[in-house]
Structure formats: structure tokens, C-alpha cells
Amino acid sequence: MKRSGGLVDAAGKPAGTAVPLVDAAGVPLGGVKEPVHITEDIDAVLRSRGGQSSMKPTTKPPTKPTAMKPPMKSGSDAMLNVYDAKEGDRIEVCPEACMLVQEIVMWLEETKGSALFIDYGNDYASQNSIRGIKNHQFVSYLQEPGEVDITADVDFQALRKVVENSKSASVKYHGPIPQGYFLCGLGIEERVRQMAETVEDDAKVDDIIKSAERLVNKDQMGEVYKVCCLTTGGQPTGFEGEEQFCCVVCLKGGTSPVSSCRRN
């Protein structure tokens, strides 16, 4: 913001005013001192509607010294430390996500445990995934400020690099793997079978199966959603074994629509 007159001008406009998007493709990465583009800021959305931010910290960062690097001082530090972009490249960045992951690594380093992330995205930086969603439909993210959910794909590679750069001796990064692999590894088929056995209404059984199939089918949520885990323990459950999609439709003897179903 401090180095971009365009962003400063945009920030001063009334909520809902259309402003030109800032193209930072020609900015040398070495000269970037502050975030160039932020895809989502819930606090800003709340304030633009005339309300007060409800985002308040509930806990303090760990105070116990660790052997890790000191916390990143700003989002731009996080961006420059984890992205392999060269001058002229166009990628989406989310410094806040990198800073959040580093804080979680610090917590795990001190308290031990695990952190599980499930979201849509890829193991690389996207170029133009920002989009708006309203009533389960894609719309312009500039439409109806405060009424449209603004979202973008998660860059899981960047999150992994944050963990690696932390030099933590105990926190390990696992994944990402497709949500379908993860749920099948956890035994979703058996869980669906148990639930179906307790229901006598065939329509409810079908609803259970269809709901589970939506989560694991690679043509629905099973592949586009990814799962990663930060843990101080060993291999987390769901991340070991065969990388195959299961198919809960098979539980009723149906033909699987999932080409990689282990029963095909």
C-alpha cells in the first residue's frame, strides 16, 4: 500500500466504487516491500458494510523460545521466502496464509499435536483463480460488495515451503493429497455402511450414499479439494497406503462412476 499510488487511491474510494485493477507484473520482486494483491480480507468486507470487525485475537503467540527462525515481520517477507517466481511472472499470492501457517508451526513446536487443512487448490501457485460465489453460483467478485463470497485456490506448495523454511525439528508437512484419497484412507466406505444399516428408509439410504459420493468422487469434490497435515507425530492417518479413490456407490452393488475405484 505504501508504495502503490493506485492501491492508496483505491483504498480511499467509497465502498462499492469501481476502481481499476493493479497490474504488478512488471514489478521486480526484489523491490516489493508490501503485499501487492490480497484476494480475500474478511475484516475489510465487514467494515465496508458499516459494521465493526468481529475478528479479535483469542490467544497470544507462544512465549517459550524455540530453535526456529523468528516470526516473519510482514506478509511480503512470507511471499518472498516461499515463491519461486521470477521477474515478469504472474501468480496469485497470499502472504496471510503463509504467516498463519508459520504461527501454527510455532504452536506445534511448543505444544505438540497436529493441524489439518482441507480446501480446494493445487500444489503450485495459480495465476487467475480468484472468483466470487453467491447462492452456489460463480459471479464477479466485484459484484455486490459484502454480499458475495470472494475466494481463490490455495497454494499448498507455498504452505509446505513455510514449514520447510521454519527449520522446525519436530513439525513435518504431509500432503497434499486429494480429499477422496484421504476420506477413503480414513474408512468412509465402512462408515457409510454402518450408517446405512441403521436406516430403514431407502430414500434416506440413497441420500447418505449420494452425500458421501459427492465428497469422494473425483468428478465432484474428491479431487479438487486437497488435504494436508502438519504434525509432530508420525505418519498421520489417511495419508498412508494406496492412493486410490473409493466408491461408496459400490456399497449398493451399483456400477461405479469413478474410473479409479478399487473395485473396477
TrEMBL record:
Domain of life, source organism: Eukaryota
Pfam hit, one: Methyltransf_28
Record's keyword terms, sorted: Methyltransferase, Mitochondrion, Transferase
Record-level GO BP terms: methylation; mitochondrial respiratory chain complex I assembly
Region annotation (Disordered) ranges: 46-75
Catalytic reactions of this protein: L-arginyl-[protein] + 2 S-adenosyl-L-methionine = N(omega),N(omega)'-dimethyl-L-arginyl-[protein] + 2 S-adenosyl-L-homocysteine + 2 H(+)
Enzyme Commission number(s) from the entry: 2.1.1.320
Subcellular localization, as worded in the UniProt entry: Mitochondrion
The UniProt record lists the keyword Mitochondrion: yes
Entry-linked InterPro entries: NDUFAF7, NDUFAF7_sf, SAM-dependent_MTases_sf
GO cellular component terms listed in the entry, alphabetical order: mitochondrion
GO molecular function, one term: protein-arginine omega-N symmetric methyltransferase activity
Role description: Arginine methyltransferase involved in the assembly or stability of mitochondrial NADH:ubiquinone oxidoreductase complex (complex I).
Family, similarity comment: Belongs to the NDUFAF7 family.
Name of the protein this chain belongs to: Protein arginine methyltransferase NDUFAF7
Species of provenance: Blastocystis hominis
